């Protein structure tokens, strides 16, 4: 009997072990999925200083989590912390002492952790012992049962309030308990849980793992009943090459190395073992570091009529107060106002640009409303293209102003989309990622909102408007993104006010009849929008902008400039060939135009020559006529002169004769006087 209860657990355990081994050998090997970053979240990993615990802590830290390694060897723990830091992990890592063999130590650990006032999002119950010789924990419990199960049971229960408070319904906190396939063969001996009547290390180990699985299920039931944002999970890691297997029987120990080799090789690659650490496992990390160092940029365009709640939503989304200017309804045309802010969360820097449409929809001519938006988006693409085409490019420090996400604010009319909404979205859907949102969703009832959403989506589909679809090809986010694609457009509420609900201050809008909580998913879709836009799909939005929208702009622009990838016979042409062809075409064109100009010049010269000759002839005629007139005039004058000269001659002659006559008569008179005087003197 004693022998049976000693041997049976051994047989069962090794049988399960062989089964797991065969399963792992003949099934696809595990590849680590790409996980979203976990900045600002906190995890505790028990036994995180080595083995699976260390790998878990390391990966969580890489994802940006603040990781607390809980372990019973300070030296080992601090070394693990140092190693993770040296890898340049994103998150903070620290060590806290925890001896799971002592329930007192568990309480002290929880006390110390709670004193830090940190939230707790993930608790990994990883630490454990396997097949250790008979021994007891501090309070006298059998070692497997005490450490593997009771220690974690107490730890989880003492931290449960923290986990409940830190979780959100869209991002639950988690308890992850490391179990094992051996729980299938575990037997709970309720009469003798400590195995005192007949100790079997194998039986005790299987029992502790079964207890953990039962606890996990029970905890999940309790959480579900209470509606808390926490999940309780049990994990079977399968066969892992760690020190935990050091207590296996000797034949199993001997088989460990070759089995590990078989299990952990990549089936497609030619294996080449490295004799030491080379370091290329840090490649993904180098990429993360580089990106973090450079910082990120994200540009949001808010399109919506004046006063629809654009600025309030932006403030609520980023939990800050951006510079806001109230717009007037009398803008003659739509203006786009861009403001850039440098934000920082953990060690990630984000250059955020918010572009607002000022006066959108206020013009009589609605084309005036959307055309400026289209032009703005194109201008940003053009600037990027110009930078790309420069010989000396500086794209690494170029401020990329291309719009990554366009939040289109739909008025909460409950009726249908306005024609301006449809036209604008249609004009923009090939240029930008459009995410439609129903603004001020607190002003519309729940049933109306439901119908309104359906109406909007059917109108978008029937008008062929392509809005942004959250990507579903990445399996880590496909589930959530598929669900979110189904509830578009998001009905959002924004508020800068905080209202006290219970003992917490929350963002809300307060009305005489009640309070609308912005972050309550029963009240509006704000949390979903924030999650989708910022936490899950920000990188995809950036990528789609570059690979889809900008690519389309670039292609059209280059085609406009005459560049093509293929010639008319659909054969590929290189840039050099295109350049040569263009140059040839240009030179031919130049030559033709030169010839045309030359001929035109000759023609004009001839025309001018004829004109000149004509003018010369005319002038000659005029000259001849003038000459004739002149000679006629001259001969007339000569005639006149001659007659005048004759007259003068005649006159002179007459004058001379007259003078002569006058002279003679004077002389006669003088003689007569002299005679008279003489006579007179003779008488005296
Ligand atoms: N009921 C309700 N009111 C809101 C909401 N969001 C904003 N408001 C109010 O609407 C008014 C206008 O909000 P803004 O955020 O300035 O709107 P805007 O679109 O930025 O306005 P302009 O920039 O001037 O075009 C303010 O009184 C806000 O308090 C909401 O979700 N629900
Ligand atoms: Mg505003």
Automatic annotation (TrEMBL):
Keywords: Coiled coil, GTP-binding, Nucleotide-binding, Oxidoreductase. Residues 598-654 form a coiled coil. InterPro entries: G_SEPTIN_dom, NAD(P)-bd_dom_sf, P-loop_NTPase, Sc_DH/Rdtase_CS, SDR_fam, Septin. The keyword Oxidoreductase applies. Residues 294-560 form the Septin-type G domain. It comes from the Eukaryota. Pfam families: adh_short, Septin. GO terms for molecular function: GTP binding; oxidoreductase activity. Belongs to the TRAFAC class TrmE-Era-EngA-EngB-Septin-like GTPase superfamily. Septin GTPase family. PANTHER family: SEPTIN (PTHR18884). This is Septin-type G domain-containing protein. The lineage of its organism: Eukaryota, Metazoa, Chordata, Craniata, Vertebrata.
């Amino acid at each position: 009997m004693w022998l049976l209860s000693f041997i049976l657990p051994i047989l069962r355990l090794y049988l399960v072990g062989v089964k797991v081994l065969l399963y792992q050998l003949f099934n696809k090997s595990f590849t680590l999925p790409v996980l979203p970053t976990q900045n600002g979240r906190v995890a505790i990993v028990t036994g995180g200083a080595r083995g699976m615990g260390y790998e878990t802590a390391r990966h969580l830290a890489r994802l940006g989590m603040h990781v607390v390694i809980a372990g019973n060897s300070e030296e080992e723990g601090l070394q693990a912390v140092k190693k993770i830091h040296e890898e340049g992990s994103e998150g903070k890592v620290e060590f806290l002492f925890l001896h799971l063999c002592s329930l007192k130590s568990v309480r002290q650990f929880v006390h110390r952790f709670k004193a830090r006032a940190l939230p707790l999002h993930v608790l990994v119950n990883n630490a454990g012992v396997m097949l250790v010789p008979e021994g007891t924990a501090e309070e006298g419990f059998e070692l497997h049962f005490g450490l593997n199960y009771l220690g974690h049971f107490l730890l989880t229960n003492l931290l449960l309030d923290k986990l409940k408070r830190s979780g959100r319904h869209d991002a639950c906190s988690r308890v992850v308990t490391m179990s094992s396939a051996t729980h299938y063969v575990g037997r709970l001996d309720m009469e003798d849980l400590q195995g005192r009547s007949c100790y079997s290390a194998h039986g005790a180990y299987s029992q502790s793992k079964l207890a953990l699985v039962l606890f996990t299920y029970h905890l999940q039931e309790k959480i579900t009943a209470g509606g808390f944002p926490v999940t309780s999970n049990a994990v079977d890691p399968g066969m892992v090459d760690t020190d935990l297997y050091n207590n296996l029987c000797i034949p199993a120990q001997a088989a460990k190395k070759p089995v590990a080799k078989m299990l952990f090789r990549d089936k497609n690659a030619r294996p080449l073992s490295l004799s030491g650490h080379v370091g290329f496992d840090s490649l993904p990390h180098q990429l993360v570091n580089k990106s973090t160092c450079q910082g990120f940029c994200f540009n949001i365009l808010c399109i919506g009529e004046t006063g629809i709640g654009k600025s309030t939503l932006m403030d609520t989304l980023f939990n800050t107060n951006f510079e806001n200017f109230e717009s007037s309804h009398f803008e003659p045309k739509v203006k786009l106002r861009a403001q850039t802010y440098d934000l920082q969360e953990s060690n990630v820097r984000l250059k955020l640009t918010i572009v607002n449409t000022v006066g959108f929809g206020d013009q009589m001519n609605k084309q005036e409303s959307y055309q400026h938006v289209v032009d703005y988006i194109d201008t940003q693409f053009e600037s990027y293209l110009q930078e790309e085409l420069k010989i000396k490019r500086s794209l690494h420090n170029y401020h990329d102003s291309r719009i990554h996400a366009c939040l289109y604010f739909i008025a909460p009319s409950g009726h249908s989309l306005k024609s301006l909404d449809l036209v604008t979205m249609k004009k923009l859907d090939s240029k930008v990622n459009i995410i439609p949102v129903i603004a001020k969703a607190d002003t519309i009832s729940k049933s109306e909102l439901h119908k309104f959403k359906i109406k909007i989506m059917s109108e978008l589909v029937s008008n062929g408007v392509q809005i942004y679809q959250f990507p579903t090809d990445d399996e880590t986010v496909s589930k959530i993104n598929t669900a979110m694609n189904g509830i578009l457009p998001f009905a959002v509420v924004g508020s800068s006010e905080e209202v006290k609900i219970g003992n917490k201050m929350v963002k809300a809008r307060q009305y005489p009849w009640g309070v609308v909580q912005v972050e309550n998913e029963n009240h509006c879709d704000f949390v979903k929008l924030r999650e989708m836009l910022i936490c899950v799909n920000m990188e995809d939005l950036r990528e789609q902008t570059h690979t889809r929208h900008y690519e389309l702009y670039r292609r059209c622009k280059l085609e406009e400039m005459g560049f093509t990838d293929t010639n008319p016979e659909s054969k590929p042409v290189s840039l050099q060939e295109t350049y040569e062809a263009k140059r040839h075409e240009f030179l031919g064109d130049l030559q033709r135009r030169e010839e045309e100009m030359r001929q035109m010049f000759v023609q004009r010269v001839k025309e001018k020559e004829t004109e000149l000759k004509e003018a010369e002839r005319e002038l000659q005629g005029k000259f001849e006529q003038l000459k004739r007139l002149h000679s006629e005039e001259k001969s007339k004058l000569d005639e006149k002169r001659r007659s005048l000269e004759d007259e003068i001659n005649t006159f002179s002659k007459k004058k001379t004769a007259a003078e002569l006559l006058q002279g003679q008569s004077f002389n006669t008179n003088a003689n007569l006087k002299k005679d008279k005087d003489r006579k007179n003197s003779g008488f005296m």
